[in-house]
Amino acid sequence: MRKVFKLTDLDCAHCAQKMEDAIAKLDGVEKVHVNFLAQKLTLVADDARFDEIARQAAEICHRVEPDCTLDI
Amino acid sequence: MSKKQKKMLARILAGGALFLAAELAPVEGVARLLVFLVPYFVVGWDVLWRAVRNIAHGQVFDENFLMALATVGALALGQYDEASGVMLFYQVGELFQSYAVGRSRQSIAALMDIRPDSANLERDGEIEEVDPDDVAIGDVIVIRPGEKIPLDGQVLEGSSSIDTAALTGESMPRMVEPGGEVISGCVNLTGLLRVRVSREFGDSTVSRILDLVENSSEKKARTEAFITRFARWYTPIVVIAAAALAFIPPLFVGDFRGWITSALTFLVISCPCALVISIPLSFFGGIGGASRCGILVKGGNYLEALAKLDTVVFDKTGTLTRGTFEVVQVAPQPGVSQEDLLLTAALAEQYSNHPISQSLRRACGGELAAERARDVEEIAGRGVRAMVDGQEVLVGNARLLEDHGLRVPGCSEAGTLVYVARSGACLGYIRIADQLKPTAAEAIGRLKQLGVRRTVMLTGDSETAAKAAAAPLALDEIHAGLLPADKVQHVEDLLETKAPGGQLAFVGDGVNDAPVLSRADVGVAMGALGSDAAIEAADVVLMDDDPAKIALAVEIARRTLRIARQNIVFALGVKGIFLLLGVLRMATMWGAVFADVGVAIIAILNAMRALKVPRKDT
């Protein structure tokens, strides 16, 4: 499944890269891309566990840049 | 400016005033520390807070933490004004940076402002405003003048002019009438239209274009990929170097304080932000600017390739020429009437959508008696074979007739010759001519000026027709009489003989040339408005069918790359110099903070130039 999420208050380009790297390492993630300029995160992951993975991704975003939230 | 930014500005102004006051205050010792701590906290409390919070989250090499460490270190060494001033500068820089990023985002959002918000769906005679996503294929929608066309479809009723500027950069409106196609993302200007939807919103032209531009950042240019890799290592290395600088030299030469000061300047410049923001921004800007001109580039890597074009291969029909054919001569063999020749050809070709067939039908005028032709069979690259009135008819190029052992009459005039044979006898030929596009000569000329070494034309037409058509163009090579498979072979040969490091682009109309488009380094499809095949197969898509746009695309690509390179050299250069000065103990914290945020701002401003494409009216 492929889904695009909005990232609110993503202000740091370096953090966007860190998020992408960390989420890519999650189990079940096929592809992830953080678009700093469009403030969007594209996640392609395992259908069965998609919601769980999205939740983990949101957690990572929060950990890397606490001011930024991933709208699930 | 956003609310957050305004707040920050107020804090900076207040902090700045307090900082000046502190500089002028005639106090020493602890009192001096206290007066400088006031502006320090006013401007920098959020940096300190985030530093603490992010450490708790395990983010060690976070820029807030590094900034906090550097300034707290300066305070500990008694450099109060430096600590306070550097924090102030840093925040000014961050504000500028956030403002610049915000502006770039707005420019990009403006670019994306082609997404329709709603559709007027006709249901049981009532008109209802719905989300374009909720409209199904076959539904009927109503588009009022001034509204954006929400979905692709066919006009049932009404005629109007359509503004396609948002998609093509072309300011001339198009006319549509019942039976014609309308394309989502365009604006309906003058008349009310009833349209039968032909595609769901997710597959519509507007969705595809938006997807394409938004996802273009996934295909990174080599330059961009390099920066990403670089950034991953830069911060840890600089921080480790700072630690080494603080503790190792003093063991040998003493002066612990001095070396720590140098180490702190290292921390201030350890964020790779200038590069991490400005390089992707340059590419995105270039891609965005290009799309404003109706040139969609599917990724930074293609922009990079466009900048290095060595060979440009053009398909002839529909690319350099208009692709609208007109019958200019009907030349029957003795004993055959002109009408008979033309009608036979038109009947055999009546099911084909090829522009040549269309021109034959137009030349006949009126309705064709469709049932007179049966068993129509297309022979790729040659023509068709059909049974007309029970007799075998061949319509196609000279090769088709020669394959069947027939001799064909020659013709030295320009145009495409369509030969017609019936029951094994040649009836004669019909000459069809296509016209060069008005900008074709300019397109080739400008590419030459830009240093493209070879321009090549490939065509399925005969040698004479190709030479005649291309006479006004300064092409380097012309290869005629090619079957679709030959085109791939020719492109492969050209790929082998291109200059090292140079790139080859193939420009076609995207209809029958998908294999060639994908074989070339850069596949360029033109006239893509409404043609999915073209949008799908190509790496660069020209929304309208102006070949001069290729030269413009090259110009945009070169400019973008130049800007990206300037930023890399500038940012790395300045940081490198300051790191060196730091080792030589000549760097101040003031300088270091400039090397960090100052450079980032300048690089972002420079990157924003990529978005602004000088619009040339052609």
SSE layout:
The complex is a heterodimer of chains A (72) and B (618).
Chain A: E1 2-8, H1 13-24, E2 29-35, E3 40-45, H2 50-64, E4 69-71
Antiparallel strand pairs in A: 1-3, 1-4, 2-3
Helix pairs in contact in A: 1-2
Chain B: H1 3-24, H2 29-56, H3 63-76, H4 80-111, E1 119-123, E2 126-130, E3 140-143, E4 153-157, E5 160-163, H5 165-168, E6 174-176, E7 181-182, E8 187-188, E9 193-197, H6 205-214, H7 222-253, H8 256-268, H9 273-292, E10 295-297, H10 300-307, E11 309-315, H11 316-320, E12 326-332, H12 338-348, H13 355-364, E13 373-379, E14 383-388, E15 391-396, H14 398-403, E16 416-422, E17 425-433, H15 440-449, E18 454-458, H16 463-470, E19 477-479, H17 484-497, E20 503-508, H18 514-519, E21 522-526, H19 532-537, E22 540-542, H20 548-583, H21 589-608
Parallel strand pairs in B: 11-18, 11-20, 18-19, 20-21, 21-22
Antiparallel strand pairs in B: 1-2, 1-3, 3-9, 4-7, 4-9, 5-6, 5-8, 10-22, 12-17, 13-14, 14-15, 15-16, 16-17
Helix pairs in contact in B: 1-2, 1-4, 2-3, 2-4, 3-4, 3-8, 4-21, 7-8, 7-9, 8-20, 8-21, 9-20, 9-21, 10-20, 12-13, 15-20, 20-21
Summary, kept brief:
By secondary structure, chain A is an alpha+beta fold.
Question: How is this structure best described in words?
Answer:
The complex is a heterodimer of chains A (about 70) and B (about 625). With about 70 residues, chain A is of the alpha+beta class. Chain A is built from two helices and four strands, in the order βαββαβ. Among the domains of chain B are: about 80 residues, Calcium-transporting ATPase, cytoplasmic transduction domain A (Distorted Sandwich), CATH 2.70.150; about 150 residues, HAD superfamily/HAD-like (Rossmann fold, 3-Layer(aba) Sandwich); about 100 residues, 3-Layer(aba) Sandwich (Calcium-transporting ATPase, cytoplasmic domain N). In chain B, helix 19 links the parallel strand 21 and strand 22. The model of chain B has no long low-confidence stretch (mean pLDDT about 85). At the A-B interface, helix 1 of A face helix 2, helix 4, helix 7 and helix 9 of B.
